[in-house]
């Protein structure tokens, strides 16, 4: 990775420590405690990984996918370790059962982000490929763990590529808006929507970022503002309902957001409130750019109407920082994501290039491009 573009924070990683018991663990930065506390978790059980995803200790579509991949490797290592501690040898049948059971557990944690299911399927395919060649549990463990590391490394590399493509759309002196957190905290690398901002800054471009707070969980206020400060990117935190005013005042020239799922026609699911930002952007003639790796593209879904939208705990809306802010008994809706239709999106930036309308064609092209032939689809 380019030394000039190191992620401002480490989000998800694998630990090997011979002095620890057990010697392996999955490392996560607990994002529920930011920005007040920076706490690193060491997880040794797949149930803890599932809880971490569900509770938003780790979040962001690419980071969830990487975490799920490592979670599968962790589950296999754990059951092998448990059997060894009991003086037994794990059978290949039980190893396979553990993989599928853990995949089912993790797949149910968050339904909207397609990266999670994508990573799990890729891990299971890797496991099946090695089982064709050997009946060795040790070989299976090695192959599964290697695949998880590969997924993490590819995500980090994709972040750098998205940063380079996206930075080409940022002009020196621009003020930008972002919604939710699609930075290093949402990936295993530099980020998705924040990667172009970090890259443009490294290129010497002067810029300023307006950060939507992103109710109800405040990913913008707690996470994006914290990330940008750590990277010394000039930023201003605003409430979600201020975005239109700043657009009208001419203070925002472009918008960069991430995505949790992109359908074949270019519709996207992203953090709730993205649709409102997109409508305001169109009304003010401001380009809205979606930045996400190709693992976020779901060509099996024709439109955003088919995207499952996660419904989260009403308590996230009725309370803030542990303090109730709503009357007891009031009805509460809490969809975690909304769908932004493709006609409101100026371009979709992935590690393979910049896709523009008609997305039905350009996204299919993009998914077909090999990693060795990365090129821009900008028209």
TrEMBL record:
It catalyses: 5-(methylsulfanyl)-alpha-D-ribose 1-phosphate = 5-(methylsulfanyl)-D-ribulose 1-phosphate. Keywords: Amino-acid biosynthesis, Isomerase, Methionine biosynthesis. It comes from the Bacteria. It is an enzyme of class 5 (isomerase). Substrate binds at residues 59-61, 110, 219, 270-271. InterPro entries: IF-2B-related (IPR000649), IF-M1Pi (IPR005251), IF_2B-like_C (IPR042529), Initiation_fac_2B_a/b/d (IPR011559), M1Pi_N (IPR027363), NagB/RpiA_transferase-like (IPR037171). HAMAP family: Salvage_MtnA. Belongs to the EIF-2B alpha/beta/delta subunits family. MtnA subfamily. This is Methylthioribose-1-phosphate isomerase. It comes from Tengunoibacter tsumagoiensis.
